[in-house]
């Protein structure tokens, strides 16, 4: 199966990564307050992946602890970010494909 290249997909994926990495970094290093929403911040930044693969992993018994993340938690975050970047790329590819079809 060939890989279809899309400049709009690359732009969307790069913009997502430029948003997600600092957002998650800030969420993991936030201190203070009487409530911690680190897991929710990470879920929001990686919505497509965390609500598909994340729920599957939770069903299988994997519940990450973002209060004191270890190697497995960081690997899971990286996995979610990469899957979400791929979804964002596919959205950009789809938009570019539609625009090419409309403009001839």
Break the fold down into its secondary structure elements and pairings.
Blueprint: H1 7-29, H2 38-45, H3 47-50, H4 53-59, H5 71-103
Helix pairs in contact: 1-2, 1-5
**Unreliable residue runs:** none
Radius of gyration (Å): 16 Å
Q: Can you tell me the overall shape?
A: elongated
Q: Tell me the fraction of residues in β-strands, as a range.
A: under 5%
How many beta-strand segments?
A: 0
Distance between the termini: 25 Å
For the record, the count of structural domains works out to: 1
Query: How would you sum up the major sheet?
Result: none
Question: Helix and strand succession?
Answer: HHHHH
Oligomer: single chain
Please provide a written account of the structure:
The chain has 104 residues and is mostly helical. It has one domain (7-103). Helices cover 72% and strands 0% of the residues. The longest helix has 33 residues, at 71-103. It is elongated and about 55 Å long. The chain starts with 6 loop residues before the first helix and ends with a helix. The relative contact order is 0.19. The model has no long low-confidence stretch (mean pLDDT 86).
């Amino acid at each position: 199966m060939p890989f279809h290249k899309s400049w709009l997909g690359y732009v969307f994926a790069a913009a997502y990564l430029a948003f997600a990495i600092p957002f998650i970094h800030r969420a993991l290093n936030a201190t203070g307050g009487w409530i911690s929403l680190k897991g929710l911040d990470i879920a929001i930044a990686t919505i497509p992946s965390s609500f598909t693969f994340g729920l599957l992993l939770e069903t299988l018994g994997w519940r990450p602890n973002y209060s004191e993340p270890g190697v497995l938690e960081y690997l899971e975050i990286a996995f979610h970010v990469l899957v979400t970047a791929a979804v964002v790329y596919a959205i950009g590819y789809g938009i570019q494909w539609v625009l090419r079809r409309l403009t001839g």
